[in-house]
Amino acid sequence: MVEAGQNGGNETNDMKDGNVGEERTRRSDKALLGAHYEVGKLAALIDMSPRFIKERIKAGELEGYRLGNRIVVSAESVKRYLENRRMACVA
To answer: Cβ(73)–Cβ(63) under 8 Å?
Structure first.
């Protein structure tokens, strides 16, 4: 077991890398976000364009998050969006 302040001698290497904090932030962002879709993959899944998805984000109909250079949409947000557009009967 490693005690607080110890990391098996890698502390110096971690400090040199400079991107360790960024990697931890990305992992914690994903954990907070939960299940999510990248804009392009969501667009393909529902047979719409990435532009349509981005417009829904801008309109506040979908929850979009920027993770690095990607925009992702929470699965819960997609579920709510689709539930609000459910039709009682399709003839």
So the answer is: yes
**What is d(CA 41, CA 72) in angstroms, rounded to the nearest whole number?**
9
- Per the DSSP assignment, residues forming a β-bridge with 38 are 72
The helix/strand/coil state of 60 is coil
Mean pLDDT score, 9-14:
44
Q: Which pLDDT tens digit goes with each residue over 67-89?
A: 889 999 999 999 999 999 888 76
What is the domain-level CATH number for residue 61? 1.10.1660
According to DSSP, residue 8 is labeled T
Domain that holds residue 46: 35-91
Question: Residue 52: which residues within 8 A CB-CB, separation 6 or more?
Answer: 43
